[in-house]
Amino acid sequence: MKKTLLAEFTAREGARDEVARLIGDYARAVREEEGNLVFDVYTRASAPRAFWIFEVYRDEDAFQAHLKAPYGGPFNVALAPLIEEDASVLTFLDPLSVRA
């Protein structure tokens, strides 16, 4: 079963450009992971400092491999002082089966 999540955080005032640079570099690395299917980065139209990252991994093993990637820790350390939250807020999603 695919592992899908939404990661959210808000850049501190004056840090948006640095956060955008960091997440751009990180996105390029994550998209190269064998088990990553989607890593799309968005900002909220009405609040451009609010970042939303929609992530999909092939399965739980692929997600665990993502968590162990060597660039994840340094990314989170660099990101932490630039965002309002203590860390990214993660929301795990399950697909809804809808019959046509």
UniProtKB/TrEMBL annotation:
Residues 3-92 form the ABM domain. Gene3D superfamilies: 3.30.70.100. Signal peptide: none annotated. This is ABM domain-containing protein.
